[in-house]
Design goal:
Layout lengths: L4 H8 L4 E7 L2 H10 L7 E7 L17 E8 L9 H16 L4 E4 L3 E4 L2 E13 L2 E12 L16 H5 L5 H16 L5 H10 L6 E4 L2 E8 L5 E5 L4 E4 L5 E2 L4
Parallel strand pairs: 1-2
Antiparallel strand pairs: 2-3, 3-7, 4-5, 5-6, 6-7, 8-9, 8-12, 9-10, 10-11
The structure holds biotin.
The site of biotin has 21 residues, from helix 2, strand 3, strand 6 and strand 7.
Length: 249
Amino acid sequence: MTLSEDRLQERLTPRAVQFYPQVESTNDLAMEWLHQGAVSGAVVVADEQRKGRGRLGRTWHTPPGVSLAVSMILRPRPEHLPQITMLGALAIHDMLVGLGLATTGIKWPNDVHINRRKVSGVLAEAAWTGDKLVGVVLGMGINVRADFSGSDLAQQAISIDPALGRAVDRVDLLVDLLARADVWAGQLGTKTLFTAWQSRLVTLGQTVTYGGLTGTAELVTPDGALSIRTGDGQLHRVIAGDVVVEDGS
Ligand code: BTN
């Protein structure tokens, strides 16, 4: 079934929703809406993104008809900012497990994987006026039936449908995802949220490389940082970026 304004309004009411068949980036539109006063929980959804953005300046592909691109507006307290991407990854992870995808996990910091391949990523962007936090846009991109065969991403990326062996409805997914995101948003600032994220990380205990550093991913802290133990016994704290896991994921 296709995404449409009518279907989204029908299923997501009373949530504030903007739907677009095609956008450059849902995060950009959500950021504008945030500045115009959108309520916490409002979402921007698009069928296709022409300039979808990923972490670390990367591009995020959202071709029409095959993905979910959603940006949720939140108005958290500044001290809860590190948990925003955790809540996104948790909601996506748990939605996938709810579908029956048992081999799902979170790769540090917030990539959601199925069978060690990335199915989803999150990009949180905060807006400040001086030192006052206006709010946050939590962008979530999910590969539903995007075909990566024959592309550079074939070994790294995966979609839900082929992993599950059946076609899922993107509106059903979105309804479930947002309900889970609401629940985790209610847990911002709690140890429960951090512990849940930590327990779903597949990176801990793995041999990882980060820049010139190779060691064991030993622990994470509530601010989201990862500590890597190198062969000389030293613990190195990493706050952002990506690690390469020994298994190539
Ligand atoms: C990553 O893993 O690099 C993060 C990807 C985030 C993609 C989503 S799709 C919806 C929202 N709009 C964007 O332009 N990016 C995020």
